[in-house]
Amino acid sequence: MMVFAHLSIFTVLYSQNYTQDQIDNALIIKSEKLRIRGEKKELISFNEKYIIISQNQNYLKGEILGYINIANIYATIGDYKESFYYLRKAERKIKKINDAYLSARLYHEYGQINYGIGLYTNALKYNSRSIYYGKLISNRNERELLSGIYASRADFLHDIHQHDSSLVYLHKALNIKSTPVINSLIANHYMVYRENPDSSSYYLNNALKLLQKTDYWNVQRGQTYYFYGNFLNKKKEYEKALMYYTKSVAILERTKRVYNIPLLYKTIAGTYRILNDQKGEKEYLEKYTRLNDSLSRVCNESINISVDDLIKEKESADISKKNVFFVYKSVVFCLIVILLLAFIHCQQNRDIIKQKEFETDVLKEKLNNSYDYIIELAKKNDPNFLNKFQEAYPEFIKNLLEINSNLSKSDLAFCAMIWAGFTSKEIAQYTFVEHRSVQNKKHRLRKKLDISSDVDLYFFFKNLSDDS
After folding, report:
1. Cα–Cα distance measured from residue 463 to residue 445, given in angstroms and rounded to the nearest whole number
2. Over the stretch 250-288, which tens digit does the pLDDT of each residue have?
3. Spatial distance between the Cα atoms of 179 and 175, rounded to a whole number of angstroms
4. Which helix (H) or strand (E) holds 230?
5. Neighbours of 390 (CB within 10 A)
6. How far is the C-alpha of 225 from the C-alpha of 247, rounded, in Å?
7. Is-contact 239 272, C-beta < 8 A?
8. Predicted TM-score (pTM) above 0.90
9. Dihedral angle at the C-alpha atoms of 398, 401, 407, 410, nearest 10 degrees?
10. Residue span of the structural domain in which 336 resides
11. How close are the terminal C-alpha atoms of the chain, in Å?
């Protein structure tokens, strides 16, 4: 835990008097600018400075704000243990002051942490408390906090598949303060769940206009570029989408939002797959796997199980000086045991991951060899093509027959060739039929499988294969 062991040394350095408004402005507005830029070290140092200033001037609100701000940056980079520590410091102090803004901030951060570790029910409970106090805030500037609180609730609801409720809270957030990310999230909702490209385009354009007023290296820009890339991907402008995904990665890396990057890598890999760029797909799948594994919560979860107890023991040590030595030994012993168990658990998981990676590589090699062999059979119009394809991809054939059990072997072979990426011209060439006959067969196939004319058969079959 980071402790202010040398406060007396720094007291002289920060003996200058500040008004309460100056301290509030520093801890609410200036600190927020540092947070958005992802300036971790500067943000922590900045808030530590104003915590000391607030303590020297007996300004409790400033001290509490500093603790909450530091807790936020630790939660952002995934260090929930350190974040909990600073929130508990703030919580102890907040009992001495009646301030709706501080209470709203505190419960908002607790909600974010619980969401980060996957406790969605707890996250929603804390968020409800945060909304309650947020509505009691009288200061107009401080009341803008409600926008972020509503946006967080939208995230929580989205992840438990309450998409319509999520949209309601996004609009509530937008009505209080319009930000690039909120506009982007609304645009994404209309694109994914409403299939309304006009509304999606409208909100994305709003987001891009708002970005013109911000610095380039800004987390809002990084997240907005990701959603804009998705919009371009939906429009099949894949090269342009890749450009925005790449920019998003660079910004999120620089602003320390590494927990947002694995999904980006996976999305980039999927885009390369559509472009038939196997090298690019492989590169970003490997990046996704490495980063996702390194960000695995296995180690953190092992420690986080007892983090509340450790903090309570630390608080007890502050209250009861007579038990300092006993508590110190207990905390150290528990920490050593927990770290040892966590280390053993991590080692076991690394072995499992390595074994799974090996098995995956072997399977991929077999599938690649099998795939190449099947493609050659198709090009030769070999009668064994369908049998070999079914051996390699049984679930795909099974899914087709579940849609229409009356499909003939000829129909199944035709579907397999489309799945393999053969064009109509190539299918006609390899099966020795007219190009027109292939088009007619595709038309009949759409009727048999109840596929509308605006749906690409290749992507339909690929999605059918992925769903299995």
Report:
1. 17
2. 998 888 777 778 889 999 999 999 999 999 999 999 988
3. 10
4. helix 219-234
5. 18
6. 7
7. no
8. no
9. -10
10. 308-375
11. 47
